[in-house]
Amino acid sequence: MTLTAGVVAVQGDVSEHADAIRRAASAHGEDVVVREIRDSGIVPECDLLLLPGGESTTISRLLHEEGIAAEVVAHVEAGKPMLATCAGLIVASRDAKDDRVETLGLVDVSVDRNAFGRQRDSFEAPLDVEGLDEPFPAVFIRAPAIDEVGPDVEVLAEWDGRPVAVRDGAVVGTSFHPELTPDVRIHRLAFFADRSAEGAEPLTR
Description:
The structure is a single chain. By secondary structure, the chain is α/β, with parallel strands linked by helices. The chain has one domain: Rossmann fold (3-Layer(aba) Sandwich). Helices cover about 20% and strands about 30% of the residues. It contains five helices and twelve strands. It has helices at about 15-25, 55-65, 70-75, 85-90, 185-190, and strands at about 1-10, 30-35, 50, 80-85, 95, 105-110, 125, 135-140, 145-150, 155-160, 160-170, 170-175. A seven-stranded mixed beta sheet has the order 2-1-3-4-12-11-10, with helices on both faces. β11 and β12 (about 170-175) form a beta hairpin. The model is unreliable at about 195-205 (pLDDT under 50).
């Protein structure tokens, strides 16, 4: 069976995420086709969905203008996996604390935008992530932090005492950019952790 993975392509590191999905799938013995999503009608065909970073107010506006937002919600409500990174997590959250962002309410968290500083404050940190054997080299760029977590949300990682990776049902959300490292384990965790194929190669760098 060939899986269809959709990367919302209105902003963000689309090609980097697409490459990470392909490599994670290959290491798990899965066949995947990656589609870029800029218009409505594609999300319903996807088995996996990725909502990348960028500028959260712009992403939110374009998702609603193009009719993609409701399709993303339906995807998650159907129990299909989604990975939301950085600004994608802000848009997927319950509360972005910013009226300019029309959130999707898919992750029961509130988010503090740019909690770790502006572009010049970007940094990389070895992050202990639940489910991973070795620290993940997390890249934080204008990164949000999660400051309130709902009762059914699993915190996967913290940095400086604040949650930066969570799982809420079918959605994994990260404050950092996992696509900016050759390590594909976050994409595995979001999409393929429950689809392990016998003889699959280890999902590291």
